[in-house]
Amino acid sequence: MPAPSLLAVYAHPDDESLSSGGVLAMHAAAGARTAVVTTTWAPGTPRAAELTEALRILGAGEPRLLGYADARAPHSAPGAARFCDAPLDEAVRRLVAHIREFRPDVVVTHDAYGGLPGHPDHVHTHRVTLLAVQAAGLERLYPDTGAPWQPGALYFATHPHSAVRTLGGYLAPTGKGMNTVADELVTATVNVGPWLGRKWAAVLAHRTEVARGAMPGHLAGLPAAARQSLLSTEWYIRHDPGPAAHPQSELTADRAGDASPASGGRTWSADCG
Q1: pTM across the whole model
Q2: How many whole angstroms separate alpha carbon 139 and alpha carbon 199?
Q3: Neighbours of 258 (CB within 10 A)
């Protein structure tokens, strides 16, 4: 059976490479259709150009930018609303249009914490994606955005508590928090070692972030063995968006067990800051 088509939805240019670069490269190498929607930054900005190069390396097509401003970088989309401040219905509609146009079997995005650092744009991207995946399959919602399409599965990129032993020593100098989840919540553990070269090249394509010492820059300063330890595994929590799952709804992954994701009932406390 061919690898399932994959649409990644992330907040900023570089999130796709850091969080799911291995899975994107793996699916593309298997002949699957892959694409990335980025909720912030506008076309014509330097980081959008860097994203174009990163997606070329990963085999994920052209950038799909929602065009909102980064919560902490108003120059990311001059004149546009900050993503967290934009009307929720508007943001969901824009993402539904991409889902219905691309028609993915699988969607991946940030977890409910917004990943390790918990950036407010990451958290809001999780919220908007969760709503958009559900709405995309309902014909009476946003009928002007195309025919309904229900992705077979939604996966949240995450990190288990057990990974802190590896992450802590390397990432503590960044001063960033580490939001991890209980190991039993992780439903897919993916060894992306064979695609690590492509993933790392995509991370380095985000030259602005390397130069300013953000996560790509921090990683670039580490020994190669440390980078391999940090980047060669990707973890995901599966969330079933509805009963009409497609046969090709599995992430190409080594299964970590049959534990079900506990995504309901969570309280979101992050805001735009």
Answers
A1: 0.90
A2: 37
A3: 6
